[in-house]
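Quick start: what a row looks like.
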Amino acid sequence: MAARGHVQDPNDRRLRPIYDYLDNGNNKMAIQQADKLLKKHKDLHCAKVLKAIGLQRTGKQDEAFILAQEVTTLEPTDDNSLQALTILYREMHRPELVTKLYEAAVKKVPLSEEYHSHLFMAYARVGEYKKMQQAGMALYKIVPKNPYYFWSVMSLVMQAISAQDERLAQTMFLPLAERMVEKMVKEEKIEAEAEVQLYYMILERLGKCVEALDVIRGPLGEKLTSELQSRENKCMILYQRLQRWPECNALAHKLLLKNPDDWQFYPSYFDSLFHLIDQSWSPPEEGEHCPEGLVHHTVSEVVRFVEERVKGEDGKDSHSLRGPYLARLELIHRLRERGCPEESLLGEPLELMVQFFGKFGDKPCCITDLKIYLHLLSPEQHVQFINRLSEAVPLGEQGDEGFAFPDDTKALQRHLCMCQLSRMLGLHHCLDTDGKLRLITELKAHYRHGLKFGKTALKTELQFSDMYCLMAAHVYVDLWTETGDENMVWQGLGLLQEGLSHSASNAQFKLLLLLLYCHLGAFEPVVDLYSSLDAKHVQHDTIGFLLTRYAESLGQFAAASQSCNFSLRFFHSNQKDTSEYIIQAYKYGAFEKIPEFIALRNRLNQSLHFAQVRTERMLLDLFLEADIVLSLEESVKAMSLSAEEDDIPWDNMRDNRDLTVFTSWDPKERQLTEEHRRRSLEEESVWLRLRSLTLRLLASLAVLGHSSSHQNSDVANENGVGDKSSILSSLLSQLNQTLHTAAQIAEKHTQYLFLGPPSTRLTAALSSGSCQCQAAAFQLSVHLQELEMVGLDESSELQTQICNAFKSLVVQLQEILKKCKGDLLDMKEGKLKTYPSLLENLIFFVETVCIVLWMASYCAKILRPLKTSLQKKKKKKKDANTSLPVVMCGFQELTGSLQDLLTQALDYIKGQETGVTALKLASLTLEGNTEEEVLFMKAAVDKVHSSYLRSLQEVGDLLKKRAETLKNLKI
């Protein structure tokens, strides 16, 4: 609640204590204070609303809503009540109710500027663009201020952007918006830059580039002052759209003369040159080349221009600009692409890059500048290039270890850049194992030597030599993936932990540690690592997948819930936040930002990660709580989960993952390709579809179970259970189809790069047999439904079929459990080896057991009434035959077998806990490492041990709870 200003009226003074209590989070006292006030002043509406806010914040949403509606129906017009109701409805996520509130207020006080503007903003929150347009014009009529008029114009533009029919946007909304602005232009009422920006946006969307160009170059364009070179940038965009290459070239040339380091104009300059060459353009014999001035239309002119810029920099004693040197390399790259012989005029790329390194090698940006142009070197030149660079790296005398070290940070940066370029050229990758180990020793020596330059650095600052440490860790990862020697990964973990102890804010250390721990099957240390990254806003969408992919699959259910919450909190607040950003953009006239905010909201709503986290979180809650805390039916109801509705935007799915978040110096052939990205997205989508269908099938099962326990079969059929079964059948057919697609993807055996996208659980789920077993359990529920319809007397064949399905499920579960058996951690000859795939299979077993138990619970609900009616018939007939129908015997066998399976699984888990605890005490053989290195490695190994024990404990606890639910399945 905002702090309130000078108290003007006695009601404000009375309400002040309630505001203070709410501000301080003391909601109960706020409610009590409001009650006291309402006893004395029954008509003080605001006190009632403030009480509702207190109730809302203490979880009594229904009471709060009733109170709020009581006040709303009275159509209050006092500012206190209206503002308090606005806050309450926003907290209830019901912004549409605020519009009704101010609609009523505006009718009663038609000339209030404040209420009209509040109504406009209320419409903006819910995206009612047409009503915004009308509200804006109504406001302008009351108070003729320019901003209000342009609010209305912008609302027309938003109608055009959101229109389903593009023709409607182009023929109605945008032309109307254009006419409205033109009216203001003719009357010379345009005052602000925002108004010119909006005019430009309208013309651009109408494709009227010539008119837009006239506006930018005319007197209105002089108002565009907030951004540097705003007019020039807009002109350049328009020239490119209009394909006016002479103007494009001349403008770029003019701007580069002014600032030869402004990189954005070099690509435009080169692009326009090649377009002019392709069009065989030649300048007119008389007069200017074009309105923008001189045009360079031949390669020789452009080469001369670039060389002149470079000479200008060569003549400087210090602070040379990088732009011209990079422009020369960029021009060589483009000329080579087109097969132009003129590239030789610019010089030999190797010499030019060595020259660039000589000038800028002591800057961290040198590596990112040069790596783009490494392809200009032939493979034979790679070693020569690095040798030439090493000549330009000043190192001191060789020490005892045989390595020479830099004497200052500039020399360190040069040496580091050379090492990074060596790796990018593949010179690290072609070394044999011994060569790589020698390289690691050298990188570690340079790292530790470089720490002396950062002794006075703050805790939040990175060390100058951090990249040596990261590169050495990458070489350890290379050795691990190539040789399978897990000792390499333990050493890599130890080194990264050492790096983190000196550079606690290094995000790259944390990201690589996070990935390595996940690959080893240890999720426990990952949660703290991710939290310490302090991911902000949209990063929860772009890098959140690193966390959520492994959480549940490694058996850390509590951490998995927490991981999903990290992301979900962001996605849900995004909806509310975006509305506020849009309102601020209207208030301050930042109209061009509004479509960007809308695009961001859509991008996040359609995010693959959002859909995954939402689905996984609901499944996780069901696995942990359904039939333990609440029944499956109650759990599904609490989630508002519907079998009929699929809320995932499959056709507009956006892959927002940042797959290049890891710093990498791998050569081009080892880098992420578009094909890998495409396959990863395809695999993620199919796995999401499987999980989403599983969730909806569980919702369907819950509805059927609810119907069975409340109605007999005749009434059930009348009440639409027949319809429910058709939904179940449809979902099952979709599941089988998706499983078929999944099998085809799994057959491809796509291997992703270690630092690339993580592979999904899809292949492991299929090879463990859990997907097939879950599908069989859902299929069985269809047969059980048939049994409920037909009854026991007429269904001997169906009963036999159901019993066979029971036996098949048990066999499949035994097979899944068999694939979990084996030691998760193993020590051989002092070397520790992890088997995370066994842990992943164990989680598949747990998930499948849960689904089979829910199916069994549904079965029990069907069989109980059938058994009761059978016993009644026997009593009437005085039938002494005590034998049970086949299906009931089969069900008793099923529950017995499931009990045995769970006992076996719990025994296995107990055995593994003992084994892992014993290994914790065993010692690793860590020869050839310093005492400090051994300490860091042991710390990493302890974290892995502790994580495995935590996973086993959580899985064991869940299985014990599931074993308890089996006791309730008696019929």
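That is the whole record. Confidence is low (pLDDT under 50) at residues 1-7, 712-721. The radius of gyration is 35 Å.
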